[in-house]
Amino acid sequence: MATSGKQHTRLGEQAWNKMSKVNAEFFALTYGAMVMQLVQDFEDTAAVNAQLDTMGYNIGVRLIDEFLAKSGTGACADLRDTAETIAKVAFKMFLGVVAEVANWNADGTAFSVVLYDNPLIEFVELPPQHCELLYSNVLCGVIRGALEMVQMKVECRFARDVLRGDDLNEIRVELKEVLAEQMDDQYFEGM
Amino acid sequence: MIVCLAVISKANAPLLVRTYVDPSLGEDQADTTIRFHHIVHTSLDVVQEARAGDRHVPACRRWCAATRDMFLGHLCPMDEYEVYGYVTSTQVKILAVLEETVTSRKSELAALLHTIHGFYVNYQLNPFSPLNQPIGSERFKLAVDRQVNGYNADIG
Amino acid sequence: MIFNFYIFNRNGKCLFYKEWNRPQNTLQHDDGEEKRLMFGMLYSLQELVGKMGGGDGKGALQSFTTDSYTLNFFETASGLRFVLNTDNRAGDLTAILRHIYGNIFVDLVVKHPMFEPKAGVPLQLPMFEEELEKYMKSLPCFV
Questions:
Q1: Judging by beta carbons within 10 Å of its beta carbon (0-12, 13-18, 19+), is residue A188 exposed, middle or buried?
Q2: For every one of its 191 residues, what pLDDT tens digit does chain A have, with 9 covering 90 and above?
Q3: Which among A6, B112, B141, C77 has the fewest CB atoms less than 10 Å away?
Q4: Residue of B nearest to A123 (CA)
Q5: Which positions in chain B touch A28 (Cβ < 8 Å)?
């Protein structure tokens, strides 16, 4: 187990070195401006959270191919492998930070991705009137979208958030079902 | 020691005024604040003058020649206090009102105001920070307080 | 010699088809039928190959050869299937399919803002076609 963890870390490093970089402040400010626009457009915080999740989902369904093609990881053997890959390879590759996997449930169908360092929130301080806002909810959407493309239906939510006063960021990922291959209608004509 | 620190917007509206007066002296907090608001407000005229005196310098170089140049130094005495100023390239002023029992070292004060300028920049980078409105951020206030108290402790 | 090239999505929709050399075409009358048969055949073959091999069959099928052509196959974990038909002298083309996926498809299709990953509509992206064309023609096994 320890060796496979190291291997993930190494893959993450390699992928990170290959990626083209963008200025962290530019990235954080762009994301901030977008969130602010959503906050202004939708009065309801829950709607903003949902919108961020949807955006993330749309990113995730694309990002998966970039990830598979450039990270050098193959299909994951099991959910533990998937979790490590997300935390050590994907987060490193796209955000430049390493996350930890923790809090497995008894059945091994749910885990947490723990982020000590979140580049999205570098300058952010939530004002009291937005205390329900899940500022980084886009990350949940990305994970959900990306996993759906590899046939894993998951539920994903922020369990702990530094911006809301917790000591670290924790994204809870729960596997709901493994999707079956679904053939297009055109293959059922003759039946 | 620093008894008041103020951040003033380009349009001369106060964004943040923090006072550091020993409450045991018996003055009402609200009175103290009003008194310093008044001092700060009056000092702004001096900042204006300092700027006017610079007219012969090309506008582009007037305020942003070098980082340290944003420190205006001693502006004026005001009642029993001394006022020091700092102006950013975007015309945000940071004023420090000092009660000078011993002569303060200018370089330390300049460094302090420079640090607070840094905090202000970080505050502005928060997407939730409103522009040109009083600063409500607890993080910013805490950082400023810590910095000023540290400075006062060193002097005292 | 490279004959033709398909990209299928997970549900068997043909996202892209291109042919360079096709001396004879017995399925000319129905374009959709051919793609359907192609995907169906691969799908069944993958299942069979997987069952015979004892695993889940992922990545087991890479190519097969008949008298007149070799079919090269590459499936991604996201369910995309790349199929490249060549003559029997082209050699192992796995690396080429990976390159098409990783460097051409991902950069010019997946990152294209108009591309909808889940819609399964045929691609109409001239940049991608051009780049693919250029790459294919640069290959020593192209002619």
A1: exposed
A2: 445 678 889 888 888 888 888 898 899 999 999 999 999 999 899 999 999 999 999 999 999 999 999 888 878 888 999 999 999 999 999 999 999 999 999 998 999 999 999 999 988 999 888 888 999 999 999 999 999 999 999 999 999 999 988 999 999 999 999 988 777 777 776 54
A3: A6
A4: B126
A5: 125
- Asked whether A84 and A62 are in contact (CB, 8 A), the reply is no
Q: What kind of fold does domain A2-179 have according to CATH? A: Muramoyl-pentapeptide Carboxypeptidase; domain 2 (3.30.1380)
Cβ distance B127 to A125 less than 8 Å, yes or no, reads no
Q: What is the CATH number of the domain that holds B36?
A: 3.30.450.70
Flag if B125 and A33 touch (Cβ within 8 Å): no
- Level-2 CATH architecture, domain C2-138: 2-Layer Sandwich (3.30)
Q: Does ipTM surpass 0.90 in this model?
A: no
- The token pair at C26 is 């017995």
pTM of the model: 0.84
> Is A69 an interface residue toward C (CB < 8 Å)?
yes
Is residue A60 a contact partner of residue A143, using CB atoms and an 8 Å limit?
yes
Cα distances from A97 to residues A13, A86, A109, A120, C120, in angstroms, run: 10, 11, 24, 11, 33
Residue-range domain boundaries for chain C: 2-138
Domain ranges of chain A: 2-179
